[in-house]
Amino acid sequence: MTLSAPTYDLVLLLDPQAEDSVRAKIVADARTAIEAKGELVNYDEWGERALAYPIDHKATAEYHLLQFHASDVELIAELNRTLPITDGVIRFRINKLEPGTPAAPDMSPGASPPAREEPEHLPAEEQAVA
């Protein structure tokens, strides 16, 4: 039985003060690397958003999400080697997704916020125990 390649999320936080061409090249290079050794499943540009805390005196970043399948660990190593030294990348994160992880919400500018699931209410007798 052949297992399918694991799915990964790559979140790129790019410097919004960098030239548009520089930011576009960073995303294009990441996509090229992924497509050369894996399969790009989804790409979302989330636009400029506030950071939770300042990084290098920057309060905002341009967010990009690339979801991909990769069976070759060399792809992950290559991204981990090149992205930290690329000018214009503020931060990046690569996460391996567990099977059954829901799809990423639509975070594009102008999209409605993702619906929050309300916790199920316990019956009165179970609330006293909980």
* Main CATH class: Alpha Beta
Question: How much helix, percentage-wise, in residues?
Answer: 25-40%
Strand content: 25-35%
The CATH level-2 architecture is identified as 2-Layer Sandwich
List keywords for this structure.
130 residues, Alpha-Beta Plaits, 4-stranded antiparallel β-sheet, globular, 3 helices, alpha+beta
Task: Break the fold down into its secondary structure elements and pairings.
Layout: E1 7-14, H1 20-37, E2 39-55, E3 58-69, H2 73-82, E4 89-96, H3 124-129
Antiparallel strand pairs: 1-3, 1-4, 2-3
Walk me through what this model shows.
The structure is a single chain. The chain is of the alpha+beta class and 130 residues long. The protein has one domain (7-101): Ribosomal protein S6/Translation elongation factor EF1B (Alpha-Beta Plaits, 2-Layer Sandwich), CATH 3.30.70.60. Helices cover 26% and strands 35% of the residues. It contains 3 helices and 4 strands; from the N terminus they run βαββαβα. It has helices spanning 20-37, 73-82, 124-129, and strands at residues 7-14, 39-55, 58-69, 89-96. A 4-stranded antiparallel beta sheet has the order 2-3-1-4. Strand 2 and strand 3 form a beta hairpin. The chain is globular. 15% of the residues are buried. The mean pLDDT is 84.
